[in-house]
Amino acid sequence: MSEWFFPRVLVAGRIAHNVRVRSDGDVITDITVDTQPDRHTFNGVAVPGFANTHSHVFHRGLRGAGEGEDFWSWRREMYRLANRLVPDSYYRLARAAFAEMVAAGYTSVGEFHYVHHQPDGTLYPHHDMELALVNAALDAGIRITLLDTCYLHAGPGVPLGEEQARFSDGDVAGWLERWHALREAMPESPLVRLGAALHSVRAVSPDEMATAVSGLPERAPIHIHVSEQPRENEECQVAYGLTPTAVLERAGVLSDRTTVVHATHLSDDDIAMIARSNTIVSLCPTTEADLGDGIARVKDLLDAGVRLTIGTDEDVVTDPFAELRMVESTARLVSGTRGVIDCDVLWKIGSRNGVESLYPAAGPRSYQTSTPACGGAGLAVGDPADIVVVDPSSPRLAGVDPTRWPLVAAAEDVTATIIAGEWIRRGDTTAEDLRHVLDELRGRDS
Amino acid sequence: MSEWFFPRVLVAGRIAHNVRVRSDGDVITDITVDTQPDRHTFNGVAVPGFANTHSHVFHRGLRGAGEGEDFWSWRREMYRLANRLVPDSYYRLARAAFAEMVAAGYTSVGEFHYVHHQPDGTLYPHHDMELALVNAALDAGIRITLLDTCYLHAGPGVPLGEEQARFSDGDVAGWLERWHALREAMPESPLVRLGAALHSVRAVSPDEMATAVSGLPERAPIHIHVSEQPRENEECQVAYGLTPTAVLERAGVLSDRTTVVHATHLSDDDIAMIARSNTIVSLCPTTEADLGDGIARVKDLLDAGVRLTIGTDEDVVTDPFAELRMVESTARLVSGTRGVIDCDVLWKIGSRNGVESLYPAAGPRSYQTSTPACGGAGLAVGDPADIVVVDPSSPRLAGVDPTRWPLVAAAEDVTATIIAGEWIRRGDTTAEDLRHVLDELRGRDS
Q1: Residue B67's closest chain A neighbor by CA?
Q2: Which residue in B has a C-alpha nearest to residue A408's C-alpha?
């Protein structure tokens, strides 16, 4: 059991004072406000840890890289990097990038992982790439839901290219077999969970999707890229006469344990399908800006009752506050109004909704909270014991009500991160580790 | 004369090594690369200081404040704050907010100032509000171009409201008289320059604009808000049958010493008028997002050859890198492509173009550079001796080419700011100063 005292804590949408928080294992078991502590554990404002629901952690290696002219030329550069990864460099890159996430206040990550095999497609003997990620997360101290990805085609009816050989298990049966074997090989830890991903309607056919879903445990989280680029929508219409979202609905993929990623170019019907299936949406605002994807229909999704979350995706920015501000900023820019999303909802987009995406309710290691979903944002009994301490003393936050920080704060304001009841000390070698492994992957001396 | 040694410096669009930079007074006089210094003055990468071409510094008091539903409701809240300011609180708020800018790498500010008089419109005896700003800038160590603003009407033919009484000099002659008197009262300092602003086509009629311009010295910089909101365009069409930009052209306001601020909702003709007059545009990306103004036609402006700059405006974010990334991000989001603006151009948008806005060429205290405008970004002989040192050692920048930092870096990466040849030490009371004055202005005990 752990016990923490904070001078201020976000609880039920408000700032409570002199709060004692207790956790048992990785879950918050008690929150008592207006205590009389001898001393405070940390001198900041405690808020729920941020959940990063969509990460391709090796994309960190492309931060600031030269321009492609569009998404598709960027993807070619990304494939070049993907094909240089080996388990050791994958582990080192991931560990350092996860450490950067922890320092920024992310306490869990959904790692959408598809670089499974050797560059020619040969299997590694012991799930080496998958366990490289899991061990990187454990060593960085962050919770990981490994979203092991089924990736079979380059497009509807299009075989994979040579540069995609690492991604494929041949067919759904091969992927399922590996998935279940991996499940047995996963280390026992409250930080680790195995989930699943179907790459996209480009990479998995509707029939394959149905087979994949029926072969997975009932409450495993399922993530899938949807409608990031207009071209995906066009190709999907040509192949199936349906939008990507409609393909997912017919294939039985949409559900309350499913998260669709990006969901940038949706029709009204798409939004209705996502809403009535209680599917979650992962927005990746800084990535969608970096790649010129477009602006998701955030207000329409919220009005339909859809739960939104945030992801770092290509990790061009590692700052949950920057993601949240970008969600609201782009919503304002397209609507011409202010306050599109309540700050209380922004906090939940950053934290609680993300937990629901990575740990669907009623599954193993799900979290039952004592506050109903309509209650205010903040720490709650039954939630993961994932807590971020924000230092209010910077000029940036001076005079700003903490409940409004999603619009104002920055990763640098995070001074401590507690994950599964443990305070994760910052390593001081993160930058050096990143430089070394990136120089190596780019073929330069470090 | 000052002399600085840096391990790396942005010069002519590239990173040069072991560079000695000399300044005399407030101007760079020599740059020598590949020197053999005994030691480096700072251990980071030196880049040109950032110019903040549009600031209403007292808006810092509204950072994170409650939502209005749109720009116009936000403005009512802003007026309430404006009417609580007195010279002392204006000075203290400005000094702290300017210090925050300096720490973030801004080395000059165009302060668009219109809170001239007492709340009932009575004149202060000694330019008290204007000199409060100038002294705040001097004490914070930042260059200021005080853009003293002519503000006469609430809209075409609409008299000012009670809450705008502080802004008005009655008529153009009154404003010009005060402007010239203020010019005599300005302290002598390389950090200080007096410029002018016409608030907008709402606040100054076309005839008044023409009179104002003809009453100013030939090379005084002139700034004006243009087409921030669609409603301004509509009202202008009703009143004059012209767009705001066309009104400015007819009134003789557009020129190479003029900066139009926001320029969000422009027609093709507007862009052509701005381009052929060599008028500068001040974009305020984080403010335009915060207020839901819309996305400027950045690519079209650049294609037409228009010089863009950045401003903090309402100061919801104090981070030049965040502004630059937001310019490019929004341009990508509307175009669906990447690399809309070269990083080299982004550096110039952040620095050189801003200097040209605040110190128009051939005017007093203008800067003549040895590199032509089409040369690469970076420090140059003849430029202001305004230098920002960026620490490359954070995880955020690990493995990222410094020339690409406009897309990646953050204000926290700035470790030293040199203005007019002087290293400006950071005060450690900035946050406290902000809290005190904001509590006072909001009527709370601090």
Answers
A1: A339
A2: B64
